[in-house]
Amino acid sequence: xxxxxxxxxxxxxxxxxxxxxxxxxxxxxxxxxxxxxxxxxxxxxxxxxxxxxxxxxxxxxxxxxxxxxxxxxxxxxxxxxxxxxxxxxxxxxxxxxxxxxxxxxxxxxxxxxxxxxxxxxxxxxxxxxxxxxxxxxxxxxxxxxxxxxxxxxxxxxxxxxxxxxxxxxxxxxxxxxxxxxxxxxxxxxxxxxxxxxxxxxxxxxxxxxxxxxxxxxxxxx
Length: 221
Prior knowledge:
Blueprint: E1 2-5, E2 10-12, E3 30-34, H1 39-47, E4 51-56, E5 59-63, E6 68-71, H2 80-87, E7 92-95, H3 99-108, H4 121-132, E8 136-143, E9 146-156, E10 159-167, H5 172-187, E11 192-196, H6 200-204, E12 208-210, H7 212-220
Parallel strand pairs: 2-3, 10-11
Antiparallel strand pairs: 1-2, 3-5, 4-5, 6-11, 6-12, 7-8, 8-9, 9-10
């Protein structure tokens, strides 16, 4: 690793799979840059509470934000309208049926307040390899045969590290999250969803904001 910014410290990573201490990151959470985005690098990052946020000019930017948002599955808040949507039978839910399809949809479907997407072919290749290794999962929501919502993420210890979600129909991404919390977290032996960056949307659904120090304590417990 080469120190490229001293205060706060930001490193340019070498080919060696190693990360600096994320607790030393500054307010924006930027920890390091790397020229690669390999499955091994991603595994090592998540184990330290770090994730790749985007790529720019050939470099991947690795973050550990403070504060952080997490969601305990048993604390998911399902509104009455969402409950009716789930019970209506309009949608069917699958898991790990079309992982790359979910990633592509997350990249293509516009999100409120966001311009473009960080999910490019390099991201798809790396996370696709993690999926093939059984270390990443997707939840798909279908209307008939049409994929209309979903989410994907990576397993690290007892955490499901949520990466992104999308909806082409009202509440379709929420239906995916409800299925993840209601059934699949338990099946996979997972206890906490890492929502990464705090948002009002996930906060209303039960997400809670904690400090980076507390998140790292939970992760390493």
